[in-house]
Amino acid sequence: MSTFNGTYYQPQFFLLSGIPGLEVSRIWISIPLGIMYVIAILGNSIIIHIMHKNPSLHEPQYVFLSLLAATDIGMAASTLPTVLNVFLLNHRRIEFHGCLAQMFFIHTFSSMESAILLAMAFDRFVAICNPLRYTVVLTHSRIIQMGLAAVARGVALMAPLPILLKRLPFCKNIILTHSFCFHPDVMKLACASIRVNIIYGLALILCSFGVDSVFVVLSYTLILKTVLGIASREGRLKALNTCVSHIVTVLIFYVPLIALALIHRIGKYHSPLPHVTMSNIFLFLTPVLNPLVYSVKTKQIRRALRRLFVLKVG
User: Fold this and answer.
1) Tens-place pLDDT, residues 252-311
2) Domains of the chain by start residue, with CATH
3) Coiled-coil annotation: which residues (predicted)?
4) What is the pLDDT of residues 160-205, one digit of tens each?
5) DSSP code, position 180
6) Residue 95, SS3?
7) CB neighbours of residue 218 within 10 Å
8) What is the DSSP letter of 242?
9) Which long-range contacts (C-beta less than 8 Å, at least 24 apart) are formed by 203-209?
10) Is 0.85 surpassed by the pTM of this model?
């Protein structure tokens, strides 16, 4: 490590941690983690493949689902190298700039996922509340623009994070509490004031995840109002059924995210276990459960999957 003002350091590397109290079981923990990564990457890749190969699935809601699957692959790929290194090989070192890069991609893909979930809520809003204008409002060019906007917003908002961390001096403590680099975890190791980092991190949550979640709730409030106005019970159930998969996906993403934000900013724990557990749930389960939810709840995807595997077996 290089010295900074004699007492502070710009570390060459950080040391990652596994799950507190379960260090001796790291090999056994690596098995379910490895399975989860296979499901996340393979499951989301299959979703993208069947969307691409089936013209009947080129509707806006399935295009958004493809974008969501691609983002889930990015989230899984961002954490995979260090997580498996820690649990499988007990290789805990991560180079300083590599840590900042991993942190940037983790937070960027999280922001992109939030934006895509908002776009999917808007898709359901237009489909149910204004179905006659559905194909006019959600054209393929507009969907591409929304996808590019999600990427641009994620990159623009998260790019300052590594810059703000790089300007800080660090002490001799270089041990992170996660098996990957997470902004709140890294900034707490700094020796100088992290007020700017805290304020910017809070602003990020409010301007991206906070705004997105508010508009998602607003969309579903208007959807529910429209659905309740449908005369027949069958019609109401049919309309709501088209939203079930997305609602479950939104809950899978936002509930752990809100809990994680509250734990990091409000909770005071002697053990890092609550932080580690909630961050692992947020980053690991979301890419795993999303393709499973849509595969189980969406009839068109189930049919496409059956055709795909029948052809493979044949």
Assistant:
1) 899 888 877 777 666 555 566 777 777 888 888 889 998 888 887 788 888 888 887 776
2) 2-313 (1.20.1070.10)
3) none
4) 999 999 888 887 778 888 889 988 889 888 888 889 998 998 898 8
5) S
6) strand
7) 12
8) T
9) 204/107, 204/111, 204/157, 204/158, 204/161, 205/261, 207/157, 208/111, 208/114, 208/115, 208/153, 208/154, 208/157, 209/110, 209/111, 209/114, 209/254, 209/257, 209/261
10) yes
DSSP state of 85: I
With CA atoms as reference, report the closest residue to 287 among 73, 3, 56, 18: 73
Give Cα 65 distance to the centre of its chain: 14
Block residue for tokens 């997470």 = 182
Task: Please name which of 197, 56, 227, 53 lies closest in space to residue 128, comparing C-alpha atoms.
Answer: 227
Task: Return all residues near 3 (Cβ < 8 A) that are at least 6 apart.
Answer: 9
CB 52 within 8 A of CB 304: no
